[in-house]
Amino acid sequence: MLTPSPIRWPAGYRSAVALAFDVDGPSGDAMLDDSLLDNLRYFGEGSYGPYRAVPRLLDLLAQYQLQATFFIPTWVVTHWTSLCERILAAGHEVAYHGHRHEVFFDLTIEQQHAVMEQSRTIFQQRLGITPTGFRTPSGDWSTATATLLHTFGVKYSSSMRGDDRPYFHPAATGGNGLVELPARWDMDDYTALAYFEDPAFPSGLDRLADYRAVMHNWSAEFQGYHRDGLFWTTILHPKVSAKPGRLSILEGLFQTIRQYDDVWVARGNDVADWWIQQYGQGGNK
Ligand SMILES: [Zn+2]
User: Which of 75, 135, 203, 212 lies 20 to 30 Å (CA to CA) from residue 147?
Assistant: First the structure.
C-alpha cells in the first residue's frame, strides 16, 4: 500500500515531472573562445545539438505528447533562432541558461546582471518572450544570484541539488523568494554518455555506459520519485542523449512515464506557478 504523497499536486496527481533539456550547443568558453578557428572539431561536438539532435528530440516528445523545458544560452538563440521558435511552437518552455554558458559562480554580481540583461534582450527581440525560469550553467552561483534573478522577473530556478521537492529560496526582504526545482548531478546525461576526445571527457579511460542500463537507471529514478509523490527533473543535453541510437534511452524513459496516469508531466514554469499558489503564503514547505 502506497503512502499518500506528502505534496499536494494538482488534479489528484501523485507526483510531478519536469523534463528539462539544456541546449548548450557549442556555447561555453572552452568551445567558443578559441574554437571557431583553432578547434573546429570540438565546436562541432556542441553544434550537433541544435543542428541535428533537437529536431529529433522534438519529434519524440510530440510522439509521447510530452511538454518540456529547454534551458538555452542566448548565444545559441541568436544562431539557431528558427529552431527556438519551433521549440516554443510545440508548446515547450524556453528559459534562461546564460548567454555563453557563463560560470555564474565566477562572475561578480554586476557581471551576472549584464549577462541577464543581454539574455533578456535577446529573448525578447528574437523570440518575443520574457522567460520566468533559470538554470545556472555551472550548477553553482553566488548567494546574491537568487535576488538578482528575482529582479528580472524570474520565478524559479532549477540550479540546486539539495531536495527532491520544490522549495523556496529566501527573499532578500524576508519571506519567499524564487522557487527552486532541484535536480541532481547524476540525472545529467554527461555522467553516463558524454564522450569527447579532445579535450578528453571522461578523462583517463574510454567508456560509455550500456544504453539499456542508462534507460533502466533513469526510469528507476522516476519511479522512485513517483512512488514517494515527489518532484523529478532532468539535466539532459540533446547533443549527448538525443543521438540516433541513444534515442532508445529517452524513448524507454518516456514509455515508462506514460505507463502512469497519475504523474503530472509539466513544464518548469507550471510547477513553479503551482508551488507559489499552494505554498507561497505561510512560509516554506
Ligand atoms: Zn548547460
Answer: 75
Residue 232 lies in a domain: yes
Domain enclosing residue 68, as ranges: 10-279
Determine the distance separating the centroid of ligand 1 and the alpha carbon of 97, expressed in angstroms: 7
Distance from C-alpha of 76 to C-alpha of 25, rounded to nearest angstrom = 7
Residues 6+ apart with CB under 8 A from 101: 24, 27, 28, 29, 73, 75, 137
Does the structure show a pLDDT above 80 at 39?
no
- Residue 214 belongs to a domain with what CATH number? 3.20.20.370
Distance (Å) from CA 43 to ligand 1 centroid:
15
How far, in Å, are 34, 102, 103, 118, 121 from residue 30 at the CA level? 7, 11, 12, 21, 24
Per residue in 116-143, pLDDT tens? 999 999 999 999 999 999 999 987 888 7
Distance in Å, CA 103 to ligand 1 centroid? 10
Compute the distance from residue 22 Cα to the ligand 1 centre, in Å: 5
Distance in Å, CA 219 to ligand 1 centroid: 22
Residue 135 C-alpha to ligand 1 middle, in angstroms?
8
Q: Are 155 and 135 in contact (CB under 8 A)?
A: no
Provide φ and ψ at 35, rounded to 5°.
-95, -35
Tell whether pTM > 0.90.
yes
Q: Which residue do the cell numbers 561578480 mark?
A: 108
